[in-house]
TrEMBL record:
Residues 17-75 form the SAF domain. It is found in: Periplasm. Gene3D superfamilies: 2.30.30.760. It comes from Gymnodinialimonas phycosphaerae. Belongs to the FlgA family. GO terms for biological process: bacterial-type flagellum assembly. This is Flagella basal body P-ring formation protein FlgA.
């Protein structure tokens, strides 16, 4: 039985291990496209092994050519930019209040950020819910 399992293991094709690397310098906050990444043979512990996990994401830090890309180097693309004027929305129990605010941070959808209410000058913590739209209150 051991002999059969050994022969089966030797006969089955080995799965190729791959590592995703930066094809060129990718600046932090840049959106990653197909031309920005490449795949090399060999597994690197902790690095991405599938290009589709990097494409469409945003670089959290500068990424350099030939270096493996790790999941912590990426984040979802920001939909609210720092200093952007955003619609500040509060919706609770049928009451909807909307005003303008200025984003003090960058944020992807669902991420928390600080926003200054332009009418009251109060800084609040909000959640990015769409391009140029943030939500505050209990239903964030």
């Amino acid at each position: 039985m051991r002999w059969f399992l050994l022969m089966l293991a030797l006969a089955s094709p080995a799965t190729a291990q791959e590592t995703v690397i930066a094809a060129g310098t990718i600046r932090g906050s840049a959106l990653i496209g197909p031309a920005d990444v490449a795949v090399i043979e060999g597994a690197t512990p902790g690095a991405l092994s599938d290009m589709s996990h990097a494409i469409g994401m945003e670089a959290r830090v500068n990424l350099y050519p030939g270096r493996p890309i790790r999941p912590g180097d990426l984040r979802p693309p920001a939909i609210v930019e720092r200093n952007e004027i955003v619609s500040l929305r509060y919706n609770y129990g049928g009451l909807l209040v909307m005003t303008e605010g200025r984003a003090l941070d960058r944020a992807a959808e669902g991420e928390a950020l600080r926003v200054i209410n332009l009418a009251s000058r109060q800084t609040v913590t909000a959640t990015a819910t769409g391009p140029g739209l943030v939500t505050v209150g209990p239903n964030r």
